[in-house]
Amino acid sequence: MSIWTELSPIELSLSYVDAGGVPTRSLRAGSGEPVVFLHGTSGHLEAFTRNLPAHAAHYECHAIDMLGHGYTGKPDYPFEIPRYVEHLLAYFDATGIERAHIVGESLGGWVGARAAIDHPDRVASLQLLCAGGTVANPEVMNRIRTSTRQAVESDDVELTRKRLRLLMADPADATEELVEVRHAIYHAPEFAANLDNLLCLQNMETRQRNILRPGDLARISQPTLIVWGRQNPFGEVPEAAAMHEAIPGSQLELFEQCGHWPQHEKADLYNALSLSFLAKSSAAGFAGRS
């Protein structure tokens, strides 16, 4: 099944939004309370195509290419977490979102958590899907940095395929269509020119400056769902358990036979879990859109 076949049941728009001067690729569908989907390092909004139809039946969904990623603009400065949060809030403002549920995978979870901590009035609930940002593991950081750089700096599509398969417990989930999408993004001249800025969080000094510590996580007051794959190559289960312990009232769900993309690898299981969580999290006084 192709990306567009998966999306065919819903009416959607794919456009560019000026978010604080950064042209931002945005896929929007549905109506209701806003839910914003944020992908991981070197990723793009297609990470959520298996989730948007189910969610758009109940919510106004926004899947975006984050700052410096995908086809979104790539200003020339290192992309540290405050920059991502600034861009996210600029997107909120540009699209009239006062407050949203955030679904963040990997880097997207790191950004979503920081937004929830620093701007609690803008975040209604938080989903952390194999979220990064709570540890600085040199081996994992090197794996991300090396595999991404190799795939970007070589025209060999097999390196892009290997980079995507690294995320999945079952290599078949790294579909050839996803490989083609990512290979095209990786080999756009502006992406390659921007690579050092995009990978800056894999530098130890930069990462330590941005890391989420237990005291930060303890400040998250929004309903929080943590979803983790037991075969996650970028973080083992104790990392998820530590997040769960630090975030008051959080919910932890572990997926079997699942790697770093639980929303994609176990879409049916994740969609049901997410929709149940969102229904419980929708506060009576939700601010919604301006």
Distinctive features:
290 residues; alpha/beta; 8-stranded mixed β-sheet
Please describe what this structure looks like.
This protein has 290 residues and is an alpha/beta fold. It has one domain (3-146, 198-281): Alpha/Beta hydrolase fold, catalytic domain (Rossmann fold, 3-Layer(aba) Sandwich). It is 42% helix and 17% strand. It contains 14 helices and eight strands. An eight-stranded mixed beta sheet has the order 1-2-4-3-5-6-7-8, sandwiched between helices. The longest helix has 16 residues, at 138-153. The protein is globular, with a radius of gyration of 17 Å. The protein starts with a helix and ends in a 9-residue tail after the last helix. Mean pLDDT is 96; it is low at 284-290.
SSE arrangement:
Elements lengths: L2 H5 L4 E8 L2 E8 L4 E5 L13 H5 L3 E5 L16 H15 L4 E6 L1 H12 L4 E7 L8 H16 L3 H9 L10 H11 L2 H5 L1 H4 L5 H7 L3 H4 L6 E6 L7 H10 L4 E5 L6 H4 L1 H15 L9
Parallel strand pairs: 3-4, 3-5, 5-6, 6-7, 7-8
Antiparallel strand pairs: 1-2, 2-4
Helix pairs in contact: 3-4, 5-6, 6-7
